[in-house]
Amino acid sequence: MCFIIVYKSKMLYHLGCVYKIFCEDDENISYIGSTFNCIEQRLENHKKQYQLSLEDNNITYKYALRPYFEKYGVDRFKIVKLKDYVCCRSDKYDFKQLHAYEALWINKLKCINVLTPFNPLSKLTAKMLWYCPICKTLVQYKERNRHQKTKKCLKAKEQNGV
Ligand SMILES: [Zn+2]
């Protein structure tokens, strides 16, 4: 069973969980996420998202796993549940509480998450990441033009003969 719903006043109580995706070949690579669905399904979705990002080499929204999937292969990654949390939600789009729990784990564990999901001050654009096809790094979307003029990226461009 993946979730429960209990109605109490007008709030919804859903069972969510924080999970960890890790690489079997390198214990230093782990990614923390959270979901109200089954974790196995969540891993499949990550793999689909990776495929999509390969087809559309542009904006990758909060997509931290791609360079690692690319390096080790998607089949070398496994998912485990870290903890279940009963979360109070105003509607099905409300991830605030679950993201707060996720942020606790991100702060606690060494992981590759690029951005903490729970940051009430950040605007959407602050969370958007861009995957540079030249030097294969993730940079802030709004910094993408400036990034392509950095020494690191220009050097990669030179080496790739782009
Ligand atoms: Zn670059």
Helices and strands in order:
Blueprint: E1 5-8, E2 11-23, E3 26-35, H1 39-55, E4 59-61, H2 66-72, E5 77-89, H3 96-108, H4 124-127, E6 128-131, E7 138-140, H5 144-147, H6 151-160
Antiparallel strand pairs: 1-2, 2-3, 2-5, 4-6, 6-7
Residues 132, 134-135, 137, 147-148, 153, 156 line the site of zinc ion.
Task: Walk me through this protein's architecture.
- The protein is an alpha+beta fold and 162 residues long.
- It has two domains: 5-122, GIY-YIG endonuclease (3-Layer(aba) Sandwich); 132-162, no CATH class.
- Helix content is 34%, strand content 31%.
- The protein contains six helices and seven strands; from the N terminus they run E-E-E-H-E-H-E-H-H-E-E-H-H.
- Strands 1, 2, 3 and 5 form a four-stranded antiparallel sheet that branches. A three-stranded antiparallel sheet has the order 4-6-7.
- A hairpin with a 2-residue loop joins strand 1 (5-8) and strand 2.
- It starts with a strand and ends with a helix.
- Residues 115-126 have low confidence and may be disordered.
- The site of zinc ion (ZN) has 8 residues, from helix 6.
